[in-house]
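From the pipeline queue, job 12 of 40. The input is one protein chain; the requested action is below.

Action: predict structure.
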Amino acid sequence: MDLSKWQERFSFFWYNDEELFAYTQDDFDAKAKKFSESGITCVITFSCTHFRFTMYPYWDLIRDCLAKLTKACHKYGIKVVEHHSSHLTFDPLNQEDWDYMERILNLRHSSIDSWEGLRSYIGTDPMMEGKPLSSFRQIDGRTGKWARTGYHGYCMCFNNPDYRKVYFHYLETLYAVGIDGIMTDDVQYFGDGNACTCEHCRRLFQEKTGYTLPAPEDWDAFCSDYSNPVYVAWKRFKLESTRDFQFAVNAHFKSLGYSMLRPNYVSAALLDNWTAYPFEAAREIWDFIFQENCFSELIHASYLWFAGEAAHRFAMAQRKGVPSMSMFYPNRADSIYLSWALSRSWGQMYLGTFEGMDFSREEAPYRNFEQKHPDAYSAPQKVCDLAFYHSMQTRDYTKDSNSYRKSFLSWLQAAYVSGLLVDMAFEYDDLDQLAKFPCIVLASVAMLSDKELERLGKYLENGGKILVSGELGKYREDGSLREEQEAYAYLERHTGNGSLIQLPDGPDVFQRAIASDRWVPNPKRVDAQPSVAELLRETSGVSLRQALGSQKLKLESRFPDLYASCFQSCNQSTYNIHIYNAEGFLKKEPHTVGHEDIFPCYDPQNHYTLDDEIRLTLRLDTKPGSVILYTPER
């Protein structure tokens, strides 16, 4: 394992109008120096030019700005990862679309009119290497016309060879300025899930599968019919297409003699993947695996949702032997502290930014704390009570996937709020990996291949414990049905030295992320979902604790929303217990929340205070020689 990656401290380097139009090399040098003094070792660029194809007339300007930025960062030993949307565009069709674009640019310290000629350029169809830009666009299967996105624009198809040629040539100009890494963002299919059916996708799909995609007039009967093998094959084809595109980016820069860092993130992986984003499918090429805890989501009201996603990212990164990271958008001292504390309690590196702004100075105390305790923050090894089996097949290729994933999230959050130490198992894990878990929870894992079922049977035979809730292995990998209870009966026959426990039904409720639109000038207060934490503790949480019999770490306090996690250091010399206080963040009664809320347990003078006794019981094979408390304050 490369421990040096865990010593990286990330931040975002924004380059907006001021940097693009006014900054000199000295200005960039001064900004890079501030990052260095704050302990930052690697920056990811972010810009008002994120939708790069909309900014096609200004590519030379952007490249020259990036060259100065990179030179400045390298002067202070800081790596630079360039990040932009690989294919999204703003394409306003009405005033609402223009207003949306203006709001996005304003929040990123820019505007449409600060770019000379941009208004008149938008709506034209420029030629790019002899091909019109419009010929690159994804096609909506419902209409046979260009697919729209939720970003009020169009998008390109990754199977279009002309688009690939133009984009890869553009990437070459960025590599040439000396950047250290590349994030080709938004590799996704849109059109509300109905893209792409362009000529290239139709041809490749038929070549690979032997199937033919239907015409627009037959699309409604085709779409979302999971009993139709052609529809399921098309969903798989889209995911393979986006995956292959990311592989092609790697192959391209390697062919030029470059070695690029490839960090990558996804906002949510557990509930669905309707855009065919290849985050998991291309997992072998990522150098840093992280989550985006989205810009408009309220940090304090959404932390349980973020925690579930964090378990997924940590486990994914652990398989690859690279760091996991959590990206937040904090904008005040209390939200910076909480974001840092959450990410570190999940075993993740911290990455924070507010749209268009730099908070590296405010983060410095926590960066200094990390540097003082490298043993606690370098490749931590999770101590767990149980691992939840994450089935991408169930999520992506079953008819009732939304229902199954809601049940999965309900059990996952129940374990978390009940103080159990949670990890995650994957459908691609081999038997050696599964054997590391003392218990595996199969919560509504409706699609299981025969090979997966066989591995789980061997896990049981070797002494493992499996807890089952909801549908189990109803579908094989090809979508065919098994006999009722066939998968459970198979595991019963292979229990061996292990134990197989059927969990009672629990409430299929979970704490969703709560958002208040930050793209508008004055974000509104929104109705918050009343907390379901107590309900989950008293129902599914009780069932899980009873089935386990004991737990590795127990925290006793009068505060139910005081959470602890446990990791062993990479050299196995210490156990590191992380405690954070979320008391009062979630309320049982109906209420409203907003981004301006000061977090309940935050004291601006003393930061977080907890004047009460906490009792921690950690079950270990050996007694520790000493116990030491460290906090950023003292």
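Job complete. The chain has a mean pLDDT of 94.
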